[in-house]
Amino acid sequence: MSKGDVAVPIDARLCRRAITVEDLVQGVGFRPFVHEVASRMGLRGFVRNAPVGVLIEVEGEPDAVGRFLRTLERRPPPLARSPA
User: Fold this and answer.
1) Rounded-to-integer distance, Cα 26 and Cα 14, Å
2) What are the helix (H) ranges across 5-46?
3) Rounded to two decimals, what is the model's pTM?
4) Residues 6+ apart with CB under 8 A from 83
5) 2-28 in b/e burial notation, b at 16+ Cβ within 10 A?
6) How far is the C-alpha of 19 from the C-alpha of 83, rounded, in Å?
7) Which residues lie closer than 8 Å to 48 by C-beta, 6 or more apart?
8) Can you tell me whether residue 5 is helix, strand or coil?
9) Which helix H or strand E contains 19, and what residues bound it?
10) Which of 7, 10, 34, 71 has its CA at 20 to 30 Å from residue 78's CA atom?
11) CATH second-level architecture of 6-74?
């Protein structure tokens, strides 16, 4: 996951994160996985292919955004991996 993600305050209760994932994430079910995790956590946003991987933007309660980011790092889909 890129370390260049940015937290932008929306209001006192919400935050937004933009994340670029540069690992092997295309063709492995990563985008549907991101959508399912974000939906389950009550987050809004989008996930789309980018020239260097996948771009994700999520918005919601700060605790939910934090859980979302930890889930992506700790439990990605089985076929998603970092390049060797």
Assistant:
1) 29
2) 30-40
3) 0.72
4) 23, 24
5) eeeeeeeeeeeebbbbbbbbebbbeeb
6) 18
7) 31, 54, 55
8) coil
9) strand 14-21
10) 7
11) 2-Layer Sandwich (3.30)
Per-residue model confidence as pLDDT tens digits over 32-83: 888 999 999 999 999 988 888 889 999 999 999 999 999 988 887 766 654 4
How confident is the model at residue 83, as a pLDDT? 46
Say yes or no to pLDDT of 17 above 60: yes
How far from each other are the two terminal CA atoms of the chain, in whole angstroms? Answer: 15
Catalytic residues: 31, 49
Cβ-Cβ contacts under 8 Å for 31 (sequence gap 6 or more): 25, 47, 48, 49, 54
Query: Given this model, what pLDDT does residue 40 score?
Result: 93
Main-chain phi, psi angles of 25, to 5 degrees: -130, -5
CA separation for the pair 74, 44 (Å, rounded): 21
CA dihedral 41→45→50→52, nearest 10 degrees, is -50
When pLDDT is averaged across residues 13-33 and rounded to a whole number, the result is: 80
